[in-house]
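Lecture notes, unit on protein representations.

Consider one protein chain, 161 amino acids long.
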Amino acid sequence: MLLAFAVIVLSLIGSSNWYSIGIYAGGSWIGRLLYPFFHASVVHASLNAWCFICLMFIYDIKLTRVFVAYIVSVSFPIDTLSSFISFPPLPTVGMSGIVFFLFGSISFEVRKKLYYQSWMLFYLIVGFFFPNTNAWLHLYCYLCGVVFSLLNYPITICRKK
């Protein structure tokens, strides 16, 4: 709750220079470490905070998983990928990378797995059609979350007797 509140307050403060706190090819490490906590608008911050709080309470996500999500989102290989893929012209800000990692990490905890994965595929694809959305970051974090889920929640196969 405190993190979500801090994110919304920081969105009210804003920043005059997104290049100092955003993630982009050739960006600084301080910007890479801070970008999840700043948002382009209050609506952006509120949506991310709402998703984050829902995930935390519905799936009882521990702080260690949130820390792993943070590490994954700040380690996005934008410098390497920018030579192959085009990214939005503005630096990326927001905690949606953390949220998408958490979405991926609960992949095998949900009851309706196919339904859930279908909606997540839809959200990921739609993200590529919005010009200022870093959909590659969302995809990277989501897939890392799925791998995290596979490693921590092995799939059990029931055999017929």
